[in-house]
Amino acid sequence: MSIIETQDLTHIFPDGTVGIEQINLKINAGEFVIIAGANGSGKTVFARHLNGLLTPTKGQVLLDGQPITKNLIEARKKVGLVFQDPDRQFVGQTVAEEVAFGPENLNLPPAQVDSIVKASLALVGLSRFSHQSPRVLSGGLKRKLAIAGVLAMKPQIIILDEPFTGLDYPGVVQILQQILRLHAAGHTILLITHELEKVLAHAGRLVIFYQGRLVADGRPEAVVHGVERYGVRMPLRKGEEVKELSWLK
Amino acid sequence: MAEMTLFRYLHRDTVLHRMDGRLKLGSMLLLSVSASLAGALRHYLVLFCLLCIALRVAKLPWAALLKELKFFALIIWVVLSINATTIPGDPIPNLPLPGVTVQGVITGLRFAGRLINIILICVVTTGTTPLRTLRHVIEWCLRPLPFVPEVRIATMIQLTFALIPVLFIEFAEMSRAQKARCLEVRKNPIKRMYYTVLPFLEQTLHRTDQIVEAMEARGYSEIRTKAAFKSKTSDWLIFTLCLFVFLVIVFTKRG
Ligand SMILES: Nc1ncnc2c1ncn2[C@@H]1O[C@H](COP(=O)(O)OP(=O)(O)OP(=O)(O)O)[C@@H](O)[C@H]1O
Ligand SMILES: [Mg+2]
To answer: Residue A73's domain is classified under what CATH number?
Structure first.
């Protein structure tokens, strides 16, 4: 059984804009899936349905075979969403507070919250900054903090919405290593990006969105050749292979 | 605003930072009441010395704070001069300043003493207490009251405090962006408001929505971890000292 599945997922905004239309996607536990698509193709809207932040106009999302609307808190615990803009995700005044927010919502005892916060910050290498304000961190550190805040809830599925935007080369490499470590540790990874050249080598599956619809889904080698039609830059140069598409050397 | 130190939490490892939030806020409340009740100059001096020691102990940055307090110094100076010249009374002996009265100067000084002490109390409290602790203390105080949704109130207060600096930064950023496009050239104040105040209001609503969304994404729940408060002997000592000062000021008020 797939860990997460969408059936005919459709979202039409009150102003009539079609966000996504008829999306059917099944993801198995432990997969590493990349979702790519041009600006406005519905990637973020789709991600927001997977942990119940948006309610579908039509269709549904199943988590372990159960509609997520049955238990939203459980869904948000299982599906961690790292926002496209980390500033929008921060609710705490200090780095440690920010990470503690999730576990506190789960009503864990204070001592356990503390140890989770320490462990999550250590995992992304932010322990030194625990008393700083999240807003004064650099772009790369902000992204790491956003990931730590999600990790603290111990989600099975982690969705990262454009995690490389605005990062310099070392920043991309560090975030990429982090994602691969999480995948190796057994998390199911859903990575939204249009910069395929940075990560495609590591993914087992590539899904393409175009104007709110899912238009391609399969092994990266099979899907990648047609991406340009859908507004995504073709990452392969002449003679290059998919397994070379990574910023990790 | 992002660089401001006044009224912001500054992390240090000191007795005051580690102090039990309930006792700390209790102590500060006692000192605030003392400052408002105090009548004699020596009362203000006692409070002032106590708070200076607190600033020192908390290792808060003097110089930066003093610089940011300039605004309050101006208020004090204005009030002092108004009081000194408008309140009727006897002229100051051996100091022929026309219009300045002894009673006026004393009233002005009293106001200044009160204001300085209250500001210092706020500086020490906010400088040593993270917002989360403040929130936990509010929750703890409201918990015994029936029909009061203490978690919701505490969340609202925390969010308000968290939102204010963010909005300040954004407002500054927005007006810079508009200056860069020569908004000053427009003379019509209504038009200028239209391009500054309206976007700001819209931004505020938008920001609030975003924070609510961020909280929801991580499963915000009102049944949440309760703070564990631990009070140490040193915390009680500080509290007792403040209580003592408070009692002394109350009982020597008339004297
Ligand atoms: N709140 C909203 N109201 C109306 N339309 C919206 C809203 N949010 C998104 N949309 C529309 O839904 C469509 C999909 O947007 P979405 O944010 O999912 O795109 P995206 O693929 O994430 O793009 P990007 O690469 O720029 O992040 C767009 O046409 C967008 O204008
Ligand atoms: Mg997006």
So the answer is: 3.40.50.300
